């Protein structure tokens, strides 16, 4: 099953972040995903950008042998991650790691169009899906602005993602409304996430308000407000 199909079910697919900075820890995190009900591992390569390729290959092989999907994400500092560098460095990291055959690659939407297009082409040539992502730690757009933003991202990606840090309950309701709109209006799956305690409703929402994917932990979290895989499964299974 391809990545897009994997996250197109009625329930949000569960993705667990891999955040380790050493080979034994990283491989242990991957194995924990293999033994869990999560369908996807999101490898946050910004945590360890000079990871040896052989380690990446071991991680990918373990996940694929267990029928889990691998989403590769290099999150920049401005978007809540650890990566500092030019778009050429960001692209070089992905170019190197495409050799491990990820199922999907996260590309931040803010990059200049030409650089972004080149990266999208590279990811598609490697047979992986593109997740267009955007994060805002201070503000949540209005519903109309969020719709515009996701529509623009959907024009160049296979999956769209918006994560914001709600400052008020109304912000969380806007994200839920955006998620419900995206399900009906967009041609591709949409991941819509509220970070922090106020956003947790978006991580557990099912049915009409469900995000295509929800990030949950087996230990280390990669963003504020993430719940455990066990908690999400409990809610999804009722
Ligand atoms: O984009 C996201 C969403 C996220 O920030 C969250 O809030 O769960 C976690 C990140 O690892 C991931 O890349």
TrEMBL record:
Range of residues in the leader sequence: none
Superkingdom of source: Bacteria
Principal EC category: lyase
Pfam families per record: DHquinase_I (PF01487)
Residues reported in the UniProt entry to bind 3-dehydroquinate: 42-44, 75, 203, 222, 226
Active site: 135, 161
Gene Ontology terms, MF aspect: 3-dehydroquinate dehydratase activity
Pathway: Metabolic intermediate biosynthesis; chorismate biosynthesis; chorismate from D-erythrose 4-phosphate and phosphoenolpyruvate: step 3/7
Keywords from the named record: Amino-acid biosynthesis, Aromatic amino acid biosynthesis, Lyase, Schiff base
Enzyme Commission numbers on file: 4.2.1.10
Catalytic activity entry: 3-dehydroquinate = 3-dehydroshikimate + H2O
Purpose: Involved in the third step of the chorismate pathway, which leads to the biosynthesis of aromatic amino acids. Catalyzes the cis-dehydration of 3-dehydroquinate (DHQ) and introduces the first double bond of the aromatic ring to yield 3-dehydroshikimate.
Assembly information from the UniProt record: Homodimer.
Annotated family: Belongs to the type-I 3-dehydroquinase family.
Protein name: 3-dehydroquinate dehydratase
């Amino acid at each position: 099953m391809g990545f897009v199909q994997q996250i197109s079910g009625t329930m949000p697919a569960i993705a667990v972040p891999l955040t380790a900075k050493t080979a034994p820890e990283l491989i242990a995190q991957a194995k924990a995903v293999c033994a869990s009900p999560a369908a996807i591992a999101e490898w946050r390569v910004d945590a360890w950008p000079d990871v040896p390729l052989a380690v990446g290959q071991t991680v990918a092989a373990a996940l694929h042998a267990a029928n889990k999907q691998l989403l590769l994400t290099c999150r920049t500092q401005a978007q809540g991650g650890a990566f500092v560098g030019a778009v050429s460095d960001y692209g070089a990291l992905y170019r190197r790691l495409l050799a491990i055959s990820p199922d999907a690659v996260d590309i931040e939407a803010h990059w200049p169009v030409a650089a972004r297009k080149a990266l999208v082409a590279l990811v598609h040539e490697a047979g992986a899906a593109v997740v267009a992502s955007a994060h805002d730690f201070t503000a949540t757009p209005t519903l109309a602005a969020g719709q515009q933003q996701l529509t623009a991202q959907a024009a160049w990606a296979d999956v769209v993602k918006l994560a914001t840090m709600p400052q008020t309950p109304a912000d969380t309701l806007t994200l839920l409304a955006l998620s419900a709109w995206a399900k009906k209006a967009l041609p591709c799956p949409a991941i819509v996430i509220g970070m922090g305690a106020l956003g947790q409703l978006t991580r557990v929402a099912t049915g009409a308000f469900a995000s295509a994917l929800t990030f949950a932990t087996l230990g280390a979290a990669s963003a504020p407000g993430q719940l455990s895989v066990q908690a999400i499964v409990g809610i999804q299974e009722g």
